[in-house]
Amino acid sequence: MIMANMTMEEFKKAMEDGRPVIIPVGAVEAHGNHLPLATDTIQPEQIAMEVAERIGAVVAPTVNYGVCKSLKNFPGTISLSFDTMRALMREIIEGFVQHGAKKIMVISGHAGQSHMIALREAAYDVVERHDVRVMVFSDYDIAYMYRGKLVPEDDGHAGTLETSRVLAIMPQWNKKLPGENVPEYPKFEVVREFERYFPNCYRGDPSKASAELGKKINEMIVEHIVDMVRERWRI
Amino acid sequence: MIMANMTMEEFKKAMEDGRPVIIPVGAVEAHGNHLPLATDTIQPEQIAMEVAERIGAVVAPTVNYGVCKSLKNFPGTISLSFDTMRALMREIIEGFVQHGAKKIMVISGHAGQSHMIALREAAYDVVERHDVRVMVFSDYDIAYMYRGKLVPEDDGHAGTLETSRVLAIMPQWNKKLPGENVPEYPKFEVVREFERYFPNCYRGDPSKASAELGKKINEMIVEHIVDMVRERWRI
Amino acid sequence: MIMANMTMEEFKKAMEDGRPVIIPVGAVEAHGNHLPLATDTIQPEQIAMEVAERIGAVVAPTVNYGVCKSLKNFPGTISLSFDTMRALMREIIEGFVQHGAKKIMVISGHAGQSHMIALREAAYDVVERHDVRVMVFSDYDIAYMYRGKLVPEDDGHAGTLETSRVLAIMPQWNKKLPGENVPEYPKFEVVREFERYFPNCYRGDPSKASAELGKKINEMIVEHIVDMVRERWRI
Amino acid sequence: MIMANMTMEEFKKAMEDGRPVIIPVGAVEAHGNHLPLATDTIQPEQIAMEVAERIGAVVAPTVNYGVCKSLKNFPGTISLSFDTMRALMREIIEGFVQHGAKKIMVISGHAGQSHMIALREAAYDVVERHDVRVMVFSDYDIAYMYRGKLVPEDDGHAGTLETSRVLAIMPQWNKKLPGENVPEYPKFEVVREFERYFPNCYRGDPSKASAELGKKINEMIVEHIVDMVRERWRI
Amino acid sequence: MIMANMTMEEFKKAMEDGRPVIIPVGAVEAHGNHLPLATDTIQPEQIAMEVAERIGAVVAPTVNYGVCKSLKNFPGTISLSFDTMRALMREIIEGFVQHGAKKIMVISGHAGQSHMIALREAAYDVVERHDVRVMVFSDYDIAYMYRGKLVPEDDGHAGTLETSRVLAIMPQWNKKLPGENVPEYPKFEVVREFERYFPNCYRGDPSKASAELGKKINEMIVEHIVDMVRERWRI
Amino acid sequence: MIMANMTMEEFKKAMEDGRPVIIPVGAVEAHGNHLPLATDTIQPEQIAMEVAERIGAVVAPTVNYGVCKSLKNFPGTISLSFDTMRALMREIIEGFVQHGAKKIMVISGHAGQSHMIALREAAYDVVERHDVRVMVFSDYDIAYMYRGKLVPEDDGHAGTLETSRVLAIMPQWNKKLPGENVPEYPKFEVVREFERYFPNCYRGDPSKASAELGKKINEMIVEHIVDMVRERWRI
Q1: Are chains A and B in contact at 3+ CB pairs closer than 8 Å?
Q2: Where does chain D have alpha helices with state H?
Q3: pLDDT per residue over E152-171, tens digit each?
Q4: What is the ipTM for the molecules in this complex?
Q5: How far is residue C116's CA from residue C136's CA, in Å, rounded to a whole number?
Q6: How confident is the model at residue D235 (pLDDT cuts 50, 70, 90)?
Q7: Does the beta-carbon distance from E4 to F77 stay under 8 Å?
């Protein structure tokens, strides 16, 4: 049920049938020299497709841009402002509500705090005015439950876990994977040039990544979401 | 040169080489019962890819949502506001400028007036503050040059021309194509329920469409753009 | 029925009688060295007065400033931003609606695209929330129907047609009228210094203008509007 | 030197000559049943013209709408919001500054506090960023210096003074002038329906008004401004 | 009834009992070298506490920052913008209304015009949408009724009156009090560097101040407010 | 060095001496029936005072209101919007920067995610345009390091830890302290009526609280901040 390929009457039917809507939110953000700029997009798209298949949801066209201020000086990062992200998301969610959607799930591949709050504030705004259920989360909110288990505790941006997930989704991807790099940055400080503290643009050990691990984690994320949704939304 | 699949250093190189950037802008809009909701997205994406191949440009991730107020009550149309569209586009264009892009082309599949002015105002805002060349147009600004020639003068939304172009891009698409329908609406009037004047959500004669015609028109559009760009940007 | 000269009870009566309201929108914009800066104001004011007389409408005080970005670097052009124009117009239209107006016509002498979309977005905003009919157009939307007929196809800003109309309205105007000038500018491109492509600030052949032609065209515009309104609004 | 009737080169010359610019700001506001809705417009226009003649200033097209919240429920009052008024004025003032104006005077016929602060905030915004002198005042800031002298202390909106000034400017005006009415309203309270406390929409004694008194006061205002400007701006 | 020290159920009870809410609004503004930066905060806080005690009102936490543009270049002045002040106040007032407050009094220690209009516009916005009574004033609107009586007519910012009031509230304050200083500034002019006309940052004669006078004036202000409120709100 | 009590020249001196500025940010939020509405204000004020004393910083007047959407329906919670909080904080921080502050610390007693992101976005905006160091954190970012140690892992809003800290600061506070209550709410869901999942408005076991524990934790927080600042800012 890919919305992009549906006609207006097919979409109308899906809404009348009470199908949930999943909106994948990506980002265009530098992920070291070993991962593509759309890394944060392909992951939630993949998760959204698999979850949708299992619960009979409609997958909306992806929002391809996100709020990525801290890495905005790295080549290829295109960052939206907080306000634009929030307005964009609010109008999209509200659009679905006006067509009758009652259960909406926003899955973001990017998990930056400002980005996530922009998405949540957008959803909140709609929820306050309409009788609709909206979930907003990053697949990394779930993926990072495996930090300290399947990957080290200090794994992070473009690290073992994220590299593995990309390899699982893009088997043809064959860049050289660099070794461990765990940069530190000044806690609580609001910094302009974050790249000074994060020169390689990744955190963790990409060389430890594998498609198998990625596949396993992706599957665990999908199951986690499906279980949660079945219980929460009784579907 | 698909930006989504490039790493940050590959993108950096492309900018240093002075490659143009093409940003496809789509929409999620009802196109009768015979065309998909992403009709306005797949067309500029296709054009962008072909133009990029010929002029060595980078294709940015697509902006999948647009301003579609007049058809917003038809199932499946998700319309952004003017302000959000403008802000979104301004921040994306500005993002590329900050990474060194000097020639940017925004190709929109949707050609609604408010939508196009939102894109142009966004570009204008960037152009006023940076030394960069930006072109903004809809592939329909070019396609409609063939109205009265390859298709009737009164062909329009989801009509012969648009249906043909979709068939050329999605050969597997096999919905029944309806016959002629040329609705009229009150000129100069600002109406709330545009669907009252446009009940079938298309204008023209989809049953006359063919993949061959679509292929021909798509090719003419690509050539038109490539010629224009070569002359204008000397590439 | 000039609102400026009415008292509050006279205005109240006019609204109770269901009279339409006409809001003339002008601009302060350079029109070559042969036409006054208020060229875009005097034309819709004149049209509004004549239409009002024939259909018994109330003419609101003129909005004297508009959005004129492309010519903003020519001496005397004072351009509003899109947002301010839209807000201004929205509040004025809404003001009339709150006093009971049911039929409102916005006639703009300036026909720039951003300007017109700002007016239309303003009207749309009101129409969405109130049960009222609003028409928004430029007298040039009508006047240019005569391009290729009474004046050449490439006549434009401050050309034969516009100069003629001004001469018809201001018989005392006696500036020297320059000859043909048909500048070209780069299609689809969003440019900062439009004056580079438009050095003389007019397009067409003012020397061919005459008060007679202007009078004729003004009369045709008035008749066109009156006919349209009588049919559309049944008055 | 009426800007509306100047060509672009004439305006350019005026700016090069360092001529001041006077921007009259009016309002569309109920003024009892004895004065026209444009009462607050014709007064500053008249003052502006006379001052301009004496100091060689350029008079800009009038801003015909203002912020008139307290009387907005009376028929014919069209009130802008604070934000729109401020933006409108800021863009107009800034437009003149960009064309080289160095001395700008904003004369408002309406003297409501929010309205005046909107104008002042607009001017402040420009003054902070440009080297230009801007004066903002209502002709009533000056006229009311004569309260307790030429007219009673409790004269106010559409009272003896204002009625006299209108009679002086519009000799043909011949509505019946009502007698004394001095309504009181609750100090410091922010009220929604101000008309409850101000049922007749005027304050003072219009029946005492005369064109002679109006002429005298208008002349005193003009002189006051001319003196102030000559001293302040050394012209 | 200090809200800061109340629990949620105590506050709930106070609202159910129909108690008025007093919101003190202060400022952080330079007041010469003889008064503290929070001069405009401690005065309305004191007045609010005393009024509350006499009429059984709840005193809300103080808004400690205000709009102080003219003195913003003096060390220690922290000025909010008009828009932020208005939004802040609107949300606070609306918050109380949503909890059931029916009578709200905003007492501002700072009396700058923009500041006061921001507060009034905020209140107006709430009053238009809710059935609630709101008063907005500065204690200086009342205190200056004593100019020309208890203190000279030209007493002003940080002068005899204000210094006296501070001495009454902060008996331990022991800065040297400077002598008379009555600066003049250009009427009607909107100036960027107000400090050029106001070099000592006070107006009047602080050396004439005394805690006794301050106490007397504070008491008169409190009585004035209590009388007004008892009559107006029948409490 | 309490800014409220400083004169303008004393403040000027402090800035010239390079003293850091600490801005305490509070909130007006329901904290069960056992803690005061200003709970989130008194904690950071106390911490700010103690830190300032040890590092010689200036303490700015407290920002008494914050973003508290989730508990906004409990009596006494007054919640600002995200935008207002951000603007307010941006203008305050920028105000200090304009007076020469080079090191600014924002300590918030409230730790809600939207609230914290509003503060961080505000700081980011200033940091991007000025050469200044800004830290933004909640004292609870530090306090919660002791969860699982001094207090249970599931201690939270108005629980053992927070109640203890309030008791340490307000020894006279003597409300009855309720027993354990650990409500659960639906993860990832954006809910309108959060109180449905949080009926008692606290989380943890207030009856286990003590002033001694609070004092200990407050001291640990102060030491943590002082150590961090000394190392980071070399003071």
Answers
A1: yes
A2: 8-16, 39-55, 82-98, 113-129, 139-143, 160-169, 211-233
A3: 999 999 999 999 999 999 99
A4: 0.97
A5: 8
A6: confident
A7: no
CA distance F136 to F144: 16
E67 in any annotated domain: yes
The pLDDT score that the predictor gives to residue B235 is 85
DSSP string of chain C, one letter each residue:
-BGGG--HHHHHHHHHTT--EEEEE--B--BTBTS-TTHHHHHHHHHHHHHHHHHTPEEPPPB--B---TTTTSTT-BB--HHHHHHHHHHHHHHHHHTT--EEEEEES---HHHHHHHHHHHHHHHHHSS-EEEEEEHHHHHGGGBTTTB-TT--TTSHHHHHHHHHH-TT--PPPP--B-----TTEE-S-GGGG-TTS--B-GGG--HHHHHHHHHHHHHHHHHHHHHHH--
Q: How far is it, in rounded angstroms, from Cα B28 to Cα B85? A: 13
Among residues C145, C184, C138, which one has the least CA distance to residue C161? C145
Residue count of chain B, please give it: 235
Please answer whether residues E222 and E215 qualify as being in contact, where contact means their C-beta atoms are separated by less than 8 angstroms.
no
Give the mean model confidence (pLDDT) for residues D143-170: 95
pLDDT of residue C235: 85
Phi, psi of A41 (to 5 degrees): -95, -45
Instruction: State the Rg of chain B over Cα.
Output: 18
- Three-class secondary structure of residue E60 per DSSP: coil
Chain D positions with Cβ closer than 8 Å to E: 69, 82-83, 113-114, 117, 120-121, 123-124, 127-128, 133-137, 141, 186-192, 228, 232
Q: Which residue reads 């949704």 in tokens?
A: A229
Burial grade of E71 (CB within 10 A; 0-12, 13-18, 19 or more): buried
In what helix (H) or strand (E) does residue B107 lie, and over which residues does it extend? strand B103-108
Residue A23: which of A7, A47, A39 has the closest Cα? A47
Chain E residues touching D22 at Cβ < 8 A: none
CB distance B168 to C214 below 8 Å: no
Residue A77 structure tokens: 């990062």
Low-confidence ranges of chain A (pLDDT < 70): none
- Among A144-158, B74-88, D53-67, the least confident range: A144-158
Domain count for chain F = 1
Pseudo-torsion of CA C111, C112, C118, C120, nearest 10°?
Answer: 40
* pLDDT value, residue D21: 98
Tens of pLDDT, residue by residue over C19-59, are 999 999 999 999 999 999 999 999 999 999 999 999 999 99
CA neighbours closer than 13 Å in the CB half-sphere of residue B184 = 2
Structural domain includes residue F163: yes
> What domain range includes position A175?
3-233
Q: Give percent above pLDDT 70 in chain F.
A: 100
Supply φ then ψ for residue C169, to 5 degrees.
-85, -35
A224: distance to nearest CA of chain B, Å?
28
Distance CA B154, CA A50 (A): 43
| Residues sharing a CB contact under 8 Å with residue E191, sequence separation 6 or more, in sequence order | D127, E185, E197
Going by their DSSP bridges, the two strands B103-108 and B133-138 should be labelled as parallel
Q: What percent of chain D has pLDDT over 70?
A: 100
Residue E31 lies in a domain: yes
Residues of B within 8 A of C117 (CB-CB) are 82, 113-114, 117
Does B117 contact C120 at a Cβ distance shorter than 8 Å? no
Give the chain A residue whose CA is nearest to the CA of B42.
A4
Check: pTM over 0.95? Answer yes or no. Answer: yes
User: Residue E38 domain-assigned?
Assistant: yes
Whether residue A206 contacts residue A159, with contact meaning beta carbons closer than 8 Å, is answered with: yes
Q: List the CATH number of the domain containing D129.
A: 3.40.50.10310
Closest CA to C202 of C136, C157, C162: C157
pLDDT digits (tens, 9 = 90+) for E207-235: 999 999 999 999 999 999 999 999 999 88
